[in-house]
Design a protein that fits this description.
Layout lengths: L4 H32 L4 H19 L13 H24 L9 H20 L9
Helix pairs in contact: 1-2, 2-3, 2-4, 3-4
């Protein structure tokens, strides 16, 4: 999509605001965890959903000028649902206090999985996205 410079500037300002809000959420969560030695479940869920929201926002870069709403089922079922399951595993297991084995690497990459989930979710909803699925 060809974007004019005001639209690019507005998108960059929006990205800056989203990053600033995400940083404030992380600082607030860290402050509560240091003071009380526990994190409330809603803050854990909010911190884990934030990369998903950021991924949806960045996914708008890959949409064309006038996308039409139609679900691309192979992309949705083949990418979004498995990624969503992986991205919700850690926060849900923390809130419910499951004693499920945790892969050590998974704890470090789950924000990236949620980010990819957000991008794939947005691209699977619109038929004229930047990526073509055949």
């Amino acid at each position: 999509m060809r974007w004019s410079w005001p639209r690019r500037l507005m998108w960059a300002i929006g990205l800056f605001l989203l990053l600033a809000i995400g940083y404030a959420i992380r600082q607030h969560t860290t402050r509560i965890a240091l003071n009380t030695f526990q994190v409330p479940p809603f803050l854990l869920m909010l911190e884990s959903i934030w990369p998903l929201i950021l991924g949806i926002y960045v996914g708008t870069l890959f949409l064309k000028q006038r996308p039409s709403l139609s679900v691309r089922r192979p992309l949705f079922f083949g990418a979004v649902l498995p990624l969503l399951t992986l991205s919700l595993y850690l926060p849900v297991s923390g809130v419910v206090s499951w004693r499920v084995p945790l892969v050590p690497l998974y704890g470090t990459i789950y924000p990236e999985i949620a980010f990819a989930t957000g991008m794939m979710f947005l691209l699977s909803l619109f038929s004229h996205g930047g990526f073509e699925v055949r």
